[in-house]
Design brief:
The protein has 199 residues and is α/β, with parallel strands linked by helices. The protein has a single domain, classed as Spore Coat Polysaccharide Biosynthesis Protein SpsA, Chain A. It is built from 6 helices and 7 strands, in the order βαββαβαββααβα. It has a 7-stranded mixed β-sheet, with helices on both faces. Strand 5 and strand 6 form a beta hairpin. Helix 1 crosses helix 3 and helix 2 crosses helix 4. The longest helix has 12 residues. It is globular.
């Protein structure tokens, strides 16, 4: 990771939200902002040089994001994708010279301090940096920094129908940090998850 390279922020908001029953990107956080907008705001506040959002091929841009200047929109292919890996790959391909801070939109407890700690912990020789899961000790791939060099690993994985970004981190010497804020990466896939995450 080269600190002199631009750091772009990517929000993954293209999931179908089947278990939630409604589009998670549009759900209102207790602070009043839709989750997708809140995540983009956090990336900007943390210091990202540019912002992007990953959507399904037929998904409308969340209205709450329409006023963000120079927001890059990347889309899954019409025939479907490989979940978060597709969004990560598309985002990184839109600016291959940049390092990327990638986050999922369904992290209602995420805070700017958690993102800044990740950014401030980068080392030039590291291709990847992530937090250690509070639940199983494994890498958290949906709040992680992917260097420009790691784009080729993502491309190769997608070409091989490999869909697990966590295993990309595990296979390529990803240093793990402990979360500075407990529960900051608690995600919400169901209404019950949502209630617990915002409690």
């Amino acid at each position: 990771m080269n600190p002199s390279r631009p750091l772009h922020g990517l929000v993954l908001a293209g999931g179908k939200s089947r278990r939630m029953g409604s589009d998670k990107a549009a759900m209102l956080h207790p602070d009043g902002r839709p989750l997708a907008r809140r995540c983009l705001d956090l990336l900007a506040e943390a210091g990202c040089d540019a912002l992007a959002i990953s959507l399904r091929h037929d998904q409308e841009l969340p209205p709450s994001t329409a006023d963000i200047v120079d927001l890059t929109i990347v889309r899954d292919p019409a025939d479907g994708g490989f979940g978060p890996m597709t969004g990560i790959g598309a985002g990184m391909s839109s600016a291959p010279e940049a390092d990327w801070l990638v986050i999922a939109c369904d992290l209602p407890r995420l805070d700017v301090g958690t993102l800044r700690h990740l950014i401030d912990s980068r080392k030039p020789e590291e291709p990847l940096l992530a937090y250690r899961s509070e639940f199983d000790g494994l890498p958290e791939p949906l709040c992680a920094i992917y260097s420009a060099e790691s784009r080729e690993w993502i491309r190769q994985a997608l070409a091989a129908d490999f869909r697990c970004p966590r295993k990309i981190l595990m296979r390529h010497d990803c240093r793990l940090l402990d979360l500075p804020t407990p529960r900051a990466l608690e995600n919400a896939n169901t209404l019950e998850d949502w209630k617990q995450a915002i409690s």
